[in-house]
């Protein structure tokens, strides 16, 4: 767990260091969008570090995989 945490912290630090100059010059709406994009990023990082069985992107994709398979089956028929 510690190695995952260190890796994520290094990646986040690199992203923040590269984005800080652009963030300072951004308008209010751009800052809001940037913050909203960080919410799922932090949530998925938390799941990656803790290995909790909470909902993630795989479960979201599985929600659409069933109807997509039915649609493909319908097209082939």
Question: Quick gist of this model?
Answer:
By secondary structure, the chain is mostly helical. The protein is built from three helices and no strands.
**Helical stretch tally:** 3
| Overall pLDDT score | 91
The major beta sheet can be summarized as: none
N-to-C series of helices and strands:
HHH
End-to-end distance, in Å?
49 Å
What structural class do the secondary elements suggest? mainly alpha
Gross morphology is flat
Q: Approximately what portion of the residues adopt beta-strand conformation?
A: under 5%
Runs with pLDDT <50, length 5+?
none
Q: How many domains would you count in the coordinates? A: 1
What keywords describe this structure?
single chain, 3 helices, 77 residues, flat, mainly alpha
Task: Describe the protein's architecture and organization.
87% of the residues lie in helices and 0% in strands. The chain has one domain. The chain has helices at residues 2-25, 28-50, 57-76. It has 77 residues and is an all-alpha fold.
Topology diagram in text:
Blueprint: H1 2-25, H2 28-50, H3 57-76
